[in-house]
Amino acid sequence: MTTAAPHPDDGLRPIDVLTVVAVTDVTPSVRRVVLSGTPTAVAAAGPTVNLLVPRVGDAAPRWPRVAKDGRIVWPDGAHGVSLRSYTARRQDPVAAQVEVDFVLHGDGPAAAWATAAAPGALLGVAGAGALGDRPAAQLLLAGDETALPAISRILAAAPATSRGIALLEVAGAAEEQPLSAPDGVAVRWLHRGDTPPGESTLLADAVATIDRPEGEDVFAWVAAESAAVRTIRADLRGRWGLSRAQHHAIGYWRRGRAMSPAG
Ligand SMILES: Cc1cc2nc3c(=O)[nH]c(=O)nc-3n(C[C@H](O)[C@H](O)[C@H](O)COP(=O)(O)OP(=O)(O)OC[C@H]3O[C@@H](n4cnc5c(N)ncnc54)[C@H](O)[C@@H]3O)c2cc1C
Questions:
Q1: What is the best residue among 48, 49, 229, 252 to mutate for testing ligand 1's pocket, by most ligand atoms within 8 Å of CB?
Q2: Same domain (yes/no): 175, 246
Q3: Rounded to the nearest whole angstrom, what is the distance from the C-alpha of residue 122 to the centroid of ligand 1?
Q4: 34/96 same-domain check
Q5: Which of 25, 35, 56, 263 is most buried (most C-beta within 10 Å)?
Q6: In the chain, how many H helices and how many E strands?
């Protein structure tokens, strides 16, 4: 791992910079990038992670720095580094490696970076967050390809006694990935076929056919394109009557809009 150069006593610390060690295509549209860093940097890079994505081909990015309160302080002028949210599919501090699965959706700095990623390329990390899940007797998980890394972690960590369903919207059979889930949680793949991502109503339609399980020990976790998530959130709060503590429903991307401007 390299670290961006420190500045003299201005209270700002350098970000962690990870180095690509391997790149594999998990499915036609998902590329897994294995990154190495110090065990501490790897342990801190998830489960959700704020990535600093350099412009393709920029071997010496002008990284931001981080203030004591966690704020990202950008360098003056053009820097070409974009901030994007991702999920560490796997973190292994012993091997000092973290894996991130990028959807190659064709547009945007992060998708472009992943498309071009090769061993030796650099990626910055500026903080991490929680997945927002909570163990419960009855689980509803719903997401698209961008949520697959999170759902795989939630299923792997779920108590063996959990029951429920995981709904996963992908383009087709070639995009399905093996997932290990408790016996009582059914994994159902939904194929949107030729409908472009963000335009299908498959996930919301599937949730709409499911009745709320009995009891209060219920938790729903949803992440996908923002409009789909809005519809599902309204259904879960209305028809299912879930409280805020009983669900986490977050738009992971917005159709036709970059998540934040490129630097
Ligand atoms: C907490 C969190 C965790 C996430 N984890 C992952 C993850 O592990 N893997 C992952 O791939 N994504 C993940 N995402 C989603 C990812 O941050 C967005 O897809 C992001 O927009 C990608 O940045 P970009 O620079 O490629 O595209 P942007 O510059 O943000 O967008 C450019 C264009 O691409 C479109 N676009 C963005 N994403 C998609 C998509 N998936 N399909 C089709 N069009 C798209 C936008 O609508 C826009 O028109 C996560 C998001 C959040 C909030």
A1: 252
A2: yes
A3: 19
A4: yes
A5: 35
A6: 5, 15
- 197-245 pLDDT, tens digit each: 999 999 999 999 999 999 999 999 999 999 999 999 999 999 999 999 9
- Expressed in angstroms and rounded, the spacing between residue 215 Cα and the centre of ligand 1 is 35
Domain span at residue 74 reads: 2-129
In a domain, 224, yes or no: yes
CATH number for the domain that contains residue 227: 3.40.50.80
Which residues line ligand 1 at a C-beta cut-off of 6 Å?
48, 82, 84-87, 101-103, 105, 107-111, 146, 149, 197-198, 252-259
Nearest CA to ligand 1 atom 4: 86
Region 33-54: mean pLDDT is 96
3-state secondary structure (DSSP) of residue 176: coil
Residue 141 Cα to ligand 1 middle (Å): 19
**What's residue 1's pLDDT?**
47
* b/e 222-254 (16+ beta carbons within 10 angstroms → b): bbbbbebbebbbebbbeebebeeebbbbbbbbe
Do 99 and 151 have their domain in common?
A: no
Do 125 and 7 lie in one domain? The reply is yes
What is the whole-number distance in angstroms between the Cα of residue 253 and the centre of ligand 1? 5
Longest dimension (CA), the chain: 59
Same domain for 152 and 125: no
